[in-house]
Amino acid sequence: MKVSLGWLGEFVELPKDITPEQLHEDLVRVGFEEESIRSFDVTGPIVVGEVISREAEEHSNGKTINWCQVRVAPEGQQAADGEGDVRGIVCGAHNFEAGDKVVVTLPGAVLPGDFKIAARKTYGHVSDGMIASQLELGLGDDHDGIIVLSRMGLDPEIGADAIELLGLDDRAVEINVTPDRGYAFSLRGVAREISHSTGAKFTDPALTVDIAPASGFEVKLQDDAPIHGKPGCTGFITRLVRGVNPEAPTPAWMVSRLQLAGIRSLGLSIDISNYVMLELGNPLHAYDFKKLQGGITVRRARAGETLTTLDGQKRTLNTEDLLITDESGPIGLAGVMGGESTKTDETTTDILIEAAFFDPVSIARTARRHKLPSEASKRYERGVDPLVGRAAAQRMVDLLVEHGGGTADPIGSDLVATYEAPQIELAVGAAEALVGVAYTAEEVRTSLEMIGCEVAGSAETGFIVTPPSWRSDLTRREDLIEEIARIQGYDRIPAVLPTAPSGRGLTREQTLRRRTADWVCAAGYTEVQNYPFVSRAENNLFGAPKRENGADLEAVKLANPLDGEATFMRRSLLPGLIHAAHRNVSRGSNDLALLEIGSVFHPHQNLGTSFVPPIGVKPSPETLRELNDSIPEQPLMVAALLLGRATPKQPGIAERHVDWADAIDAAKLVAHAVDAEIYVRQGSHQAFHPGRTAEIFVKSETGSIAVGFAGELLPEVSAEMHLPGRVSAVEIDLGLLMHHAPREPQAASLSTYPAATQDVTLLVDAKIPAHEVMTAVKEGSGELLENISLVDDYRGKGIDEGQKALTFAMLFRSADRTLKAEEASEAKMAGVRLAESNLGARMRD
Asked: N or C: which end of the chain has fewer CB within 10 A?
């Protein structure tokens, strides 16, 4: 909400020397967040001038300019810049005549954008200043013509300060209004809060309006399908003003206030409706009365109905949409936007004003359904004062009569439901029990009465509190206690750290996840977090479709994607890592080791539900169960991507680029971090090099389970993503890995006896994974074998085609004696025999 200081000062007494910074501080004290300070960024001298003469001149470039003589001070007196009273000024606009009063920026003035005015030679003349337009002063978007003050209803003295005349000396503060405090989307609400903060006198603008009765205009409220049991409209007030001058200008002070509030001037009737909305908080709508057909009916949309809204879009309506209709059909989306057919335009003279009260839930759902946020819907969905409508409508009537030359007509309607405020019980000690501050009974009563509540009862019996109509957010005891703490000052609340309960902390999964990130990053990786949105092609390439009953399931598709090219939820972390790598490479970082830990989204047969429960009704257990069953599976994954140099060239050290082995090392590091035992064997993946891809398995009590893959990306995939050289990657189901890791890792006992080493080379079929051979040797060697590792995999000269020679280094040790060489050899040969029996291996001579 952007609040003009000059406007605010009409409703609450502000110090004459108030600054925007001080106003921000006052509002922060009562719970608002400061955002920014707005001003017109103009400095003088900017004065009122009168055009004495205007001579049109055509130039060789085809442009016609006006050479003007402009009086900028009373005759014979010095102007604001200390120079003469008549100036020669070149002007390219043509919407003025001799005798018109205009706004003149004299040399020394500075306009928005740090545009400095000085006398300069142009088109054969020295232009001693500039005649200004709305755009040049920051008052609007109109740059086609200059400001003619008489057409704005102004007749100031020559030489008068135009900055003050046009309200350009005003400033505004912007505050962030939380969703539960919709009343602060108005000057009325903000002024009241300043009063709470500083104790300054507050004048409610709604109470200063002299409301005239109206009747005779037919309005029907026919809500046959209320949402969450509440009718969509409980108040509908109309007033009629006839004979409005469609060419009447918006007053300059109103234009400047609207501009500071972030709303551009669009014509008198629209400007006044926006002005009153900002002032009192009740959105208004103006209809061209002559375009209406019969009375107005408020109802829900019927299937197949359409409406062309003020933005020119034809919208297909939903049966939940609340409509404003006449005999011709829909003429407006209630509380969101009016219709094209009854809008006011440059010919409108009779204006029907609408001030209504709509259900917040209904308006919020309509605005989101049609992706049509507006200043009106922003207020209605947060709650509008249901009793301020009459004052708002009358205020617009008065302004149209005053500035548009119209005449108030007694025709109108006054449908307002009886306001029933909740009554909330509040014990005196309840605030202290919740906040921790010993508020007195008088402080409790005073705080609640200050915000407009009616407080009955006593300190002995407790209070019965009735909130005011503009505070629809106050519905329970805790809401009242929050208001007491806010009004009495947050600085009174002691800062006390809570005592952490014993026996709690991170779960095992949280601990292992953090340890994984810490260990891998300590090895030189950089952890990143990417958006979970990818394209269909990326999902199909890196996350193979999950099959159920032999059918491929579509990935989870977003209903409202941020990017039209990335409309699906990811089934793999690798697309995000590849995009992150590309961004870094494009900026000169060619040696990368990236890590990401996050969820992926796997669809299933029950994904999605056709039933969406109403916002205002708590879903039943069956509905919650259905919704939970429709949520996609979200396994926790860990992925890494490497490219460039693993080791840069240094004195005595050769340069080495990353390859598939680095990806496997990353997988082993992840497994070590969660105390899991993994092994790898040759695998395949559509995005990876067919000869440099490993499938990763974890050992469990029931056998081995595949948990991921590692290797090098296909060269064409890397090239398509504009990544240079070899790119290695690994992706592991971290949740599955943690599930099959031992919950209580056991440390091995250390023997003090010396070890015996043995080597063995076995010839096996090339298709047999080395891990299976090593497992057989390990199992056959028995308990004396302490460690075994693969040290060579040879294929070539001296080895039959289709065979490979695997060399293992073996270390034997006994826990109770020094081993003899014969014992180590015997254990080794037992392992060899089991490998021969199970896999057809034989020792190489």
From this structure: C
